[in-house]
Amino acid sequence: MAANPRDIIIRPVITEKSSSLMQDNKYTFIVSPKANKVEIRQAIEQIFKVKVLDVNTIRVRGKVKRLGRTQGKRPDYKKAIVKLAPGERIEFFEGV
């Protein structure tokens, strides 16, 4: 895969559900569809300097949407839920 960890981690997910997961020390990210769990773990550890205990991945299919006569489709993406070691935090998410 890509050598740069920022090519693997695309962006964080800030939703009500992901905010409630932060109480359990779990953080959610949109990741590259080609990335595997080991690459995601290494990228998170390199970018945020934290210890990752577990990585769960979900492939999300894009919804079909209509606007009048035309029909389109939102893109598919891959989501990763990362569990950190006790005492570890990602400061990027705090205060959101």
Question: Could you name the key traits of this structure?
Answer:
96 residues, alpha+beta, Alpha-Beta Plaits, four-stranded antiparallel beta sheet, 23% helix, Ribosomal_uL23/eL15/eS24_sf, ribosomal protein, Ribosomal_uL23-like, rRNA-binding, Nucleotide-bd_a/b_plait_sf
Descriptive report:
With 96 residues, this protein is α+β, with helices and mostly antiparallel strands. The protein has one domain: RRM (RNA recognition motif) domain (Alpha-Beta Plaits, 2-Layer Sandwich), CATH 3.30.70. 23% of the residues lie in helices and 36% in strands. The strands form two sheets. Strands 1-2-6-3 form a four-stranded antiparallel β-sheet. Strands 4-5 form a two-stranded antiparallel sheet. Strand 4 (64-67) and strand 5 (70-73) form a beta hairpin. The longest helix has 12 residues, at 37-48. The model has no long low-confidence stretch (mean pLDDT 92).
Oligomer: single chain
Strand content: 35-45%
How many discrete structural domains? 1
Q: Uncertain segments of ≥5 residues (pLDDT<50)? A: none
Count of beta strands: 6
CATH top level? Alpha Beta
Helix content: 10-25%
CATH topology: Alpha-Beta Plaits
Largest sheet, in brief, is:
4 strands, antiparallel
Function: One of the early assembly proteins it binds 23S rRNA. One of the proteins that surrounds the polypeptide exit tunnel on the outside of the ribosome. Forms the main docking site for trigger factor binding to the ribosome.
Family: Belongs to the universal ribosomal protein uL23 family.
GO molecular function: rRNA binding; structural constituent of ribosome
Keywords: Ribonucleoprotein, Ribosomal protein, RNA-binding, rRNA-binding
